[in-house]
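Newbie here. two chains, one complex. Structure please?
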Amino acid sequence: MSKFYHTIEGEFSMKKGILHSPQIAYETWGVLNSKRDNAVLIFTGLSPSAHIASSVEDNSPGWWEDMVGPGKPIDTRQYFVICVNSLGSCFGSTGAASINPETGQVYRLDFPQLCIEDVAKSSVEVIRALNISSLYATVGASMGGMTALAFCILYPGLNRALLSISSAARALPFAIALRSLQREIIREDPVWNGGLYPLDAPPASGMRLARKLGMISYRSASEWQTRFARERAPSSSDSNSTGPFQRSFEVESYLEHQANAFIGKFDTNCYLYLSQAMDLFDSADFGGCLEQAFAKLKIERAKVVGVTTDILFPIQQQKELSELLGKVVNDVSFDCLESVQGHDSFLVDMDRFRPVIASFFAEK
Amino acid sequence: MSKFYHTIEGEFSMKKGILHSPQIAYETWGVLNSKRDNAVLIFTGLSPSAHIASSVEDNSPGWWEDMVGPGKPIDTRQYFVICVNSLGSCFGSTGAASINPETGQVYRLDFPQLCIEDVAKSSVEVIRALNISSLYATVGASMGGMTALAFCILYPGLNRALLSISSAARALPFAIALRSLQREIIREDPVWNGGLYPLDAPPASGMRLARKLGMISYRSASEWQTRFARERAPSSSDSNSTGPFQRSFEVESYLEHQANAFIGKFDTNCYLYLSQAMDLFDSADFGGCLEQAFAKLKIERAKVVGVTTDILFPIQQQKELSELLGKVVNDVSFDCLESVQGHDSFLVDMDRFRPVIASFFAEK
C-alpha cells in the first residue's frame, strides 16, 4: 500500500457550498492491472480512516484487517484496493478541522453543510486521477454504504458491482433521533463553545456521552445479555465510579472504556458534520423518488448484506435496498446474517462475514 | 377518590439506609367492601404520580384515565383502587427533594440508595393502615411491575393476583446502559452540581437530553417510521433550530417538545434515584436465584402482558417472567401484543390494552 493525498484543484462545488482545493486522503493495496479494471473502491463508516489494512509501509492493523490483503476475501493479489478517507473527516481529507486556504484559519463551522453526495463527488476525483474508467466494485458499510450507493447513482457506468453492508437507501427517524441526540449532547457541552474549542482540548464530556450512545446503537441487547448479564464492575477510583450514582455494572465499565478510547481520536466538529450528513441522506433526492433514483444505476451486480440484530440500520432497510436494486440490476443477492453484535457485526463477526464477502469477490 | 398521605412512624429501614418518618402519598377510587378484600394496589412507572384517574375531587385526567373508573377495565364500582406514589419520587412521597426531618434540610444526595424493594416495603404500610389483609390484585407496568413483583414475593399471601405489564424479573444490560447513560448525561450538566442545584432551577439541559434518550427507548422505530418518516420540521427561532446543526426533521421537533414538557415536572435527583433503583432490581436477590425467589410467591393467578416492539423491557423478558410464574402459580396467562408504540404502548395503545386488562379483572 501507499498513502496518497489527492488535491482537487480550484473550486469544488458541494451540494450546499464551495471548498477551495480540498484534499482527499486515500490508501491503496495491490496493483492496478494493465486494463486498469481491477480496482475496488471502499468507502468507510463515520469514524474510520483510509487505513483499512496493514501493509509493508504501515504495519499497524487496519480497521478491516481480516478482510483485505493477500489471500483474504478482498484479495490484494488480484484487486487494486482503494480506500478513501471521507471528505469532511479528519484523517488527511479536508474537513472542519482543516485550514481554510481562503482565510488561513481552521474551517470549524465555516465548513459548508456536508452531504453524502459530496463525499462521493470528491472521491470520484481520485478515481479519475488514477485514470480508472471501470471499477470492479464499490464497497461500503454503514455510512460507507450510503456513499457507495450515491457514487453508483451519480456515476453510472463507472462501476460494475456494488457491495452494500448494513447500510440504507435513506436515513429513517429512529436512527435520525439517535444521531441528532448525539450531536445535541456534544453541542450542549460548554467546552464545544459553538465549535470554537481548542483543537488540543476538545469537548471530552460531550464526546464521551455521545460515543456511549453510539455504542448502544451499534451493538445489541442480546450480545450484551450474553457478554455482561448483571456482572458487577470492579470498583475504581475515577469520579464516575464513586458517589451515590457510581457505575455498578460491567456494561457501564465497557461503555466507559470504549468511549474513552474514542476521545481525542476524532475531531468533534468533523463528527458533527459526518453524523448530520447521514441524517440528510435520501437516495430519492437523486431522482424524485427511490425507484427513479435507482433507475439511474448501471451496474452488473449487487450484494446487500445485513444483520438481524442491527437497530441502527435494521434488516428491513437491507431488504428494501435489495428489492430496489432487484428492479434495475440483473444479479442481486441478499445475505441476512444472524450475528449478535448488531450494527458493528461487520467489524467483529468475521467468521460470518468472511465467506459472504469472499463469495462476492470470487465472482467475475 | 381522595388523596391521602400516610406517615410511617419512626425509623423506616431501607435496604441501604434509614429514613425517619417517611410519608407515602396515595390516591383511592371506589369503596372498600365489608370483607375488605376488593382492593387493587397499583404501582407506577418511574415518572407518574398516584393520580391514575380523574375523580370528583380532582377532575384532571390521570395517567391511565382510560383504564380506571366506573365501567372501565379496572372498574371502580367493583374494586377499591389504590395507587401509590413511589417512595423516592416527588409527588407527595418522601424522596431526595423532601426535607430530612433529622437536619431540616432537603435530602438531596443524603437520601439513601433506593431499591425497588424499599418502594414495596413502604407501600405495604399503606395497605396495613387501611386494614387490608387480602388484596384482590396488585398491578404494575414498567418499574411498577418490578415493584409489584417484589411486593408479592416479600408479602406472600397478602395479595391474590398479579398483573405485570411490560416489566421484568430483573434489569438487563441493554436497559441498564440506556438508564446509566441518562443519569450520566444529567450528572455531567454543570447545573446539577453534585445534586445541589436550586430546586427552582434544575439542570434543564441534562434533563432535556436524558428525557430525549428516554423517549427513544420508550417508543419504537416502526412507530416513528409510520408517524414521521423523513418529514421536515417547520423552522423555528430557538437556538437548537438555527445554525449549522439545526433540527431538520419532524422527529427531532417531537423529541424537543416531549422533553420540554417533562422539564420542571420531575425533580432531577429523584429521577436519578428511581432510575438507578430499576438497574439494581433483580428478583433473584429475594432467594439466591430466580426460581427460589419465585417459589416464595403465594398468589392464585397472574397475567403477564408484553409488547413485541418494546426495546427497554423486551418481549423475551415477558416470556421469561411468565415462565417463572408458571412454575409456581396455577393460573398464568401471557399476552404478547403487537402494538407499535414500544414500551409506552400501555399508555397509548388503549384499543389493544383495554380488553386484556378487562379480561384480567373480569375473573373472580
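Moderator note: Chain A has a mean pLDDT of 96. The CA atoms of residues 35 and 172 of chain A lie 41 Å apart. Thread marked as resolved.
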